[in-house]
Known about the structure:
mainly beta, 15-stranded antiparallel β-sheet, 65% strand
Amino acid sequence: MNFATKILMKNIICVLILLFSMNGFIVKAQNIEISRTYLSRTWFADHQENRYGKGDFCQYKLEYIQPISVKTNKKGQNIVWMTSLNGKYARLQNSEEAAIINPDDILNFGVNLTHIRPLSFRWSMVATLGIGIYSSPHEICWNSLLANGGLIFIFKITKNFSLGAGTGLTNSYGLPMIAPMAYIQWQTSRKIKFDLNISSGLKFNAYAQFGKRFKLTWKMIELDGMSSVFKEIGKSKLYSTMTVSSYLSPSVYFTSKFNLFIDAGVTMARGSKITEREIKYMFEKQKDEDVRSFRPALHFGVGLRYGF
Length: 308
């Protein structure tokens, strides 16, 4: 990963905290997913290739979405209330200075309430509000509770392409703050389908179905992240990490609702950043020598998914 890429990652990690906490709100069906992801051990280095130890990354993830109410208006459009639960636990096995800068483990666990309402034939509104714990398990306190929310207006340009914009709310940097948010969803209806979604992070997928039992997905670009609030010398600080991955994910369907999937590919970048929990530090420019990240790693995963 070159220096320009690292600087870009450093500046967008904080904004993506909003997206990562939204729990993927454009979903109307009940589903549950349990998975484990492992990133192989790689060097932790700066842009001059100075090395500061090694580290790997193992994450356990639970996602659950439960519709509370689904009604249909006179135009046949759905009005939806739903709740979602998103839990992530990561173990970071680091050595040398990488073990000082990065925590040993991170727990992110949040609950969101979401409302989806059509406003016209092409316009719809999504509102969401939630709260979660973002901390190391042994450092959980009141400061670990972060609130998030969002209000997005979506315009359906075609059957398969929608654009939206709105605002997101978070107290990740102490006082509640509002930041702009964007929504893009694009799907094709060809034999090989493409799906672009930035409602919660960034996902760009290509996939093909082979009969009723097998589906092959290429997750061309996937941004994911975690954050952790901690105290250092009496000050509240925020640790954030983001991964940029690309991998194949074949799925085997045992029934129409239940499948097993395996992931294999590469994580091109895994960056990290520590800032004080004050809004003025959100886009603070780090010194060049402080910009460090993990080198590309092998990406493996396995999980179970149930939904309809």
